[in-house]
Amino acid sequence: KNFLGGVKMSRERWSSRSIFILAAIGSAVGLGNTWRFPGQAYQNGGGAFLIPYFIALVTAGIPLLIMEIAIGKKFQAGAPTAFRKLGKKKGFEWLGWWPLATSFAIVAYYCIVMSWTFNYLWHSLTLAWTKSSSADFFYGDVLRLSDSPGNLGGLNMPLVIGLVLTWIFIWFSIRNGVKSMGKIVKWTVPLPIILLIILVIRALTLPGAIDGINYYLTPQWDRLKDINVWAAAYGQIFFSLSVLFGIMVAYASFLPKDSDVPTNSMIIAFADCLLSFVAGFAVFGTLGFLQQTSGTAIADMSITGPGLAFVTYPEAIAQLPGGLWIQVVFAFLFFLMLLTLGIDSAFSIVEGIVTGLVDKFGWDKKKTVAGMCFVGFAAGLIFATNAGLYWLDIVDNWVNNFNLILIGVFECVVVGWIYSAKKLRNEFNEDSNMKFGPWWDFMIKYVTPLSLLGLNILFLIDSFK
Ligand code: PFF
């Protein structure tokens, strides 16, 4: 019986192991791989970024992913309940709510990026952004995004409509919990991967592509001295793997108790990083082409924030050889890819929050889903104003870098020291073909938290310099 005296239902379950893996990959692979990762690589030293990125993956991404999936499976509950059960004096529930609060901030802006995508998809039918320039389209005529803080007035209707569509899509995908999610991810995982492969082939066969690839893979070593590059790499890994948001805990809580945690986690991490790396070829190949047609060197394109996928890439599409039809097709495919990539990440965030609330308060899941969709939509409206881009940048920078890293430190301390990393490892090793050695405990207890802590201190010092 639950605390209201009703009969406790048995927990929802993924219909199979592969559906869980697909759903987790769906959450991990999203705008972060195709929009955020190449942008971060561009801003943080091209090929040099790949080094901190890989180090962040091994020292923090993979150990934490395994930890969160192991916790979710073990306690069969969303993050707040799982962390409450994990501490001896049950005092760590806050460590479950913190990631969920972070998720909420993220989903509000993630959905506005989905809304931009809806708008671009619609306008790709006429290549509307070629009428002036793609920058005018984005910042001026149509989406009217500006990055000045004062301009909160005026909701932009196209953005609001895109936001409504996004939230309806999210609600539809998770309205019946794990069951409906399972059906959606069968489409939203393979389809964008196929589209990405088409875009990579197109990009690599464009004139000038090789210069872009050289830019992508040639390290600017001096950038490694910059602490922001390292903070960005860790932030990107967490964002990309969807760890430290309580999502993987929630998803794993629907796994049977004898599931294989390490193998599943490694598949998810590998798929996610591979797709980011591959997406880099599509983006940088295209930048190389743009360099040739526009005469502006890649390094001087000064692409910041959202500019890459929403300004520079559309501009390149408008110059593809083969005429208008080809350009329309590639524009449509690109934005369809972004949309289908992003949707299962967006709904995973909502599902993570809903699972946390339902497990803690015993609320009705359907009503909680509907309520969350409404609240998330309302919160996202701030990003649909003229100052949307300004707020997005602030939230993205602080929430993803400083805040996430701090959550990581606390999770490591609580799980590694208070619960015991060794105990958790023995538990997940029992059901796995892939046995992890004591190096994992060493990571969770020392390497991950200390590197994250050091990083945050340096990041703070740098921010206030
Ligand atoms: N991992 C997703 C991406 O790379 O696009 C984004 C994301 C999903 C971030 C879920 C956070 C999250 F909780």
UniProtKB/TrEMBL annotation:
Q: Which domain of life is it from?
A: Bacteria
The answer to whether the entry has keyword Amino-acid biosynthesis is: no
> Where is this protein localized, as stated in its record?
Membrane
Per UniProt, the keywords (alphabetical) are: Membrane, Transmembrane, Transmembrane helix, Transport
Q: Which GO terms describe its cellular component?
A: plasma membrane
Query: How does the record classify its membrane topology?
Result: Multi-pass membrane protein
Matching entries from Pfam families are given as: SNF
Predominant location of this chain?
membrane
Q: Which residues span the membrane?
A: 14-35, 47-66, 94-118, 152-172, 184-210, 230-254, 266-290, 324-347, 368-392, 404-421, 442-461
CDD domains xref list: SLC6sbd_u1
> Single Gene Ontology BP term?
sodium ion transmembrane transport
- NCBIfam families linked to this entry: Na_transp (NF037979)
The protein's name:
NSS family neurotransmitter:Na+ symporter
Q: Which organism is it from?
A: Natranaerovirga pectinivora
